[in-house]
Each structure stands twice: as structure tokens, then as C-alpha cells.
Amino acid sequence: MFLKSVRILNFFYYAIFGSVILKLFKNGLLVALFCHFKTRFKKYFKFFL
Fold first, then answer.
1. Average pLDDT over the chain, rounded to whole?
2. Structural domain range at position 12
3. Looking at 5-9, 11-15, 40-44, which range is the least confident one?
4. How far apart are CA 28 and CA 32, in angstroms?
5. Rounded distance, CA 39 to CA 21, Å?
6. Residues 6+ apart with CB under 8 A from 3
7. Using alpha carbons only, what angle is made at residue 42 by residues 22 and 30, rounded to the nearest 5 degrees?
8. What keywords appear on the UniProt entry (predicted)?
């Protein structure tokens, strides 16, 4: 019984840990994309203006 509860706790720990990492990764990806496109947009705006 004790081992089973530890296993369940382990599962929840990994699930929460995984979701947090995914959130951070998604946010990092969005920030990277935003910065990447921001510099490109600046180039385009310079070209148009």
C-alpha cells in the first residue's frame, strides 16, 4: 500500500514537473519567435518607411 501511494505521488510529481517545463518551453518559444520576428519587422518597416 505504501509503495503504491509513493508511486502515485511520483506520477503526480512528474506530471506537474512536466507541465511546468512545457509551459516554460512554450513561453520561451513564443518569446524567441517574437524577438526573431521583431527584428525582421524592423527591417521591413525600415524598407517601407
1. 84
2. 1-49
3. 40-44
4. 6
5. 27
6. none
7. 5
8. Membrane, Transmembrane, Transmembrane helix
List the grid coordinates of 11. 506520477
Separation of alpha carbons 19 and 26, rounded Å = 10
- Split at pLDDT 50, 70, 90, the class of 1 is low
Q: How far is CA 40 from CA 35, 44, 45, in A?
A: 9, 6, 9
Q: Which three cell numbers stand for residue 15?
A: 506530471
Residues written for the chain: 49
CA atoms of 25 and 4, how far apart (whole Å): 31
pTM of the complete model beyond 0.70: no
Amino acid at residue number 8: I
CA–CA separation, 37 vs 17, rounded Å? 30
